[in-house]
Request: fold
Amino acid sequence: MAEEEYEIAGLHEKLLEEEAERGELAQKIALLTAILATIGAIVSYQSGAKQNEALFLKNQSILKQAEASDAWAYYQAKSTKAHLDQLALVLVTDPAQKAMFQADLAKQETQKLEQQKKAESLQEEARKLSEESEQVLRPHERMALAMTLIQIAVAMASITVLTQRRWLLGVSILSALVGVGLAASTCLL
Reply:
């Protein structure tokens, strides 16, 4: 009969195996954390870029609105000048002076209409820039949420290593997947 060998593992060997498993888990979680940190940095950069672009467009909108306000003030000045010319036409009896005020009134009315068109155009540009700014800012909000989920994933992975509770790794991976998915869907918009 052949001799059968049985290996009886001692406590020391068992502890060494458990320690090796923990080391492997820690290495995998460290790698996961590094990958998530890299993805988080990219998402953060993209989010910041969108926010900067939106701020630039909003500033351009404010500048256009200021130009429109100046144009409307100039329009009001032309309108006031035209009203003064109309009043002068009523009060003046000299035909030469009447002709001068009539010519000035026609000039003021023409300039007033041009200024009104310019002011309306500037206001429309300001409105469009403001709308564009809001549209550019929308992905920033989603990216900020994605970044928060990625940060939660990193934190949960770290807690997994400290507590050795493997179910926390599942929470970490789920949070990471949702965050990365949200970031990816935002980039496609």
The helical segments are 11-91, 95-163, 166-188. The chain has one domain: 43-188.
